[in-house]
Amino acid sequence: MNLILRLLTPIRKLIEPPEKLISWIGVKPGMTVADIGCGPGYLTIPLARSVGIGGKIYAIEIDEKAAKYLEKKVKDLGLVNVEVKILDAENLDGIPDNHVDISIMLYSLHHFSNIRKALQEAYRITRPGGRLVIIDPMKERMLGHGTIIENVLKELINSGFKPKTFEKNLFTYRAVAWKNGG
To answer: Are the C-beta atoms of residues 108 and 136 closer than 8 Å to each other?
Structure first.
């Protein structure tokens, strides 16, 4: 099974429904959201529906195959509020400073080659009072696949974010950090 199909499997939607994640994140109609490391769009399409026509989704993905798959899906669904960008998370060119309400890194942070730079870029594009949401595997519980929580917290603070919420699950963690204190 190729990577795109594995990431979109119906079993994943049963285990972690995207609508439930979006509700937990607090996405509202009219918001601008950056889905950083969006892959083939597991969260992107439901996000686009949640923000509605008055909102906007920046779907950011470095893998060209996944991004092209998502572009086609967005076009086929007639979603005009999604802009797919083939970008490295460490260089979010084309997204203005202080522009997005929420930046999301859903199971993507551990794939970025420079976590510090990716968090700095997320900070740059997130508006004052906006937030960054990270859901990622814990490296110590996933046989080395994931991020080390303490390092992520340190880098969040070094990037200017103020961590507010931190939850550990069996294999993953959820972090919410605000720009300028929220």
So the answer is: yes
Whether the full predicted model's pTM is greater than 0.70, yes or no, is: yes
CA atoms of 43 and 76, how far apart (whole Å): 17
Residues comprising the chain, all counted = 182
**Per-residue pLDDT tens digits of the chain, which is 182 residues long:** 355 445 556 555 556 778 999 999 999 999 999 999 999 999 999 999 999 999 999 999 999 999 999 999 999 999 999 999 999 999 999 999 999 999 999 988 888 999 999 999 999 999 999 999 998 888 766 556 777 788 889 999 999 999 998 888 878 888 999 998 55
Return the number of other C-beta atoms located less than 10 Å from residue 38's C-beta: 29
CATH of 3-179, one of 3.40.50.2300, 3.40.50.300, 3.40.640.10, 3.40.50.150: 3.40.50.150
For the chain, helix (H) and strand (E) counts, in that order, are 7, 7
Annotated domain spans of the chain = 3-179
- b vs e for 148-161, b when ≥16 Cβ sit within 10 Å of the residue's Cβ? ebeebbebbeebeb
20 CB-near residues (< 8 Å, 6+ apart): none
